[in-house]
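Example 3.2
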Amino acid sequence: MDFEFLSPIEDKLLAHNLMLPEQVLGRNLRIHTKQEGFPDLNETKIAIVTLEPRLSKGDSIHFRFRQQFYKLFSGNWDFVCADLGILKAGESPEDTLFALQTLVKEMHQRNILTIIVGGEQENTLGLFRGLSKMNMFVNLTSIDSRLDFGAPGVLVSDESYMSKIITEKPNNLKQFTNLGFQSYFVSQEELDLMQKLFFDAYRLGEITSDIHESEPILRDTDILSVDFNAIKANELDYKNGNPNGFDGAQICSLMRYAGLSDRLSVLGLFDLPSTSRTDQLLAQMVWYVLEGYCHRVNEYPFSIHEPCKKFVVPQEQEMLTFFRSEKSQRWWIEVPKEGTHNNTKETTLLPCAEKDYRIAQKGDIPARWWKSIQRSMH
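Structure, written as tokens:
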């Protein structure tokens, strides 16, 4: 495939890279350069691309991010990571979306996890189309302080990337989950719409009180879109940001869970403030994705034929069956396949947490199981 829409890394950054110790990331990546050309994608497992913002053109993010990222020491990793260069903003937003769609589709077909850094979160639409155009049913998760369905006073807006995603035909969005919304930024109408569509939204406090509860959600995610407005402004040294949000350690934990997900195909990190603290945290977030990837255990799709322990919990009207992997100690719950509830014994396995098992033991139905059933019936 021709990747002519990707520009190579600038020479001054490569010169800076040569002065770094041999153990750092910058000395161990396959890098798109003018001299060497586009890197070999054979055996590549992760590809990084920086995206030029449409509203404030300039290459500063490309240099600043890489300057911080390249100097980080790699872990004990045994996979190949490539820096594919810079995707310049197109003449129109649709041009950029099409380039992203093309890139994501090609990388997915090569089984390469793609990390997009920079640009506006509306570019999530391009990531979604990259998978959707392959007739895949897509699970999309957004780490965001808002739900992004509409504009002020309008529930569903033509300007909203989420509105476009839920209205595109054919609609291949299987599930949408928001992590970390802040209630004062979200209208009741948006929450009602989420409930009507059987989507999931978790308040900031729900996630930060037990960050591990997000792991099953990210384990079941194809696309993760991160808006940096979900991070506390003082964590980014950003005067115009939000006073509340995830702190640096919490967002890095979420990135590690994302990297651990055998299912994740593409990650977008968007709406980046122009501060040196942002550059540092951004580089560390991508580092944690790589760290998580290194510890993947290849349990997607999970099957009862995997080494696991089975737990059956009787309920008044249901018999809930849980499985715990002997390999990773992670949990799944058995749910009827779409259209088979109460008719056949066909089932699928939904990622869950040990907390869901404990809830079932107390006689309650776990919310994740119930919402999955509701989605399958509509």
